[in-house]
Design goal:
- The protein has 125 residues and is an alpha+beta fold.
- The chain has two helices and eight strands; from the N terminus they run αβββαβββββ.
Amino acid sequence: MKTLSIAALTLALLAGCASGYGSKPPAEAVNGVLVGPNGMTLYTFDKDMAGSGKSVCNGPCATNWPPLMALEDAKATGEFTVIVRDDGKKQWAFKGKPLYYWAKDTKPGDKTGDGFNKVWQVAKP
């Protein structure tokens, strides 16, 4: 049952983050951290190399840390860029670092993934 709950939350997060942005940035600063369009905290992964254009969080990692997905026709705006994931889908990055949600955050303002395994950090503007 726990797996089903995480899967359902992941699908909800992905649905919320793949919406259209127009010229609006894909994330905004709230209380010193970046949040996605659904108001949920965004994170960076220390193992991702800034500016590489790649995410190393794929497969089961991306289930726990859903990427901030970008639409197929998304274009860079300000410090936000678009990278192509291993599966060919697009993801938003900030200052060259891919952005992710944490599946265990349950409401806007949660930051339970900050410092997780000493490699996940809240994304800061």
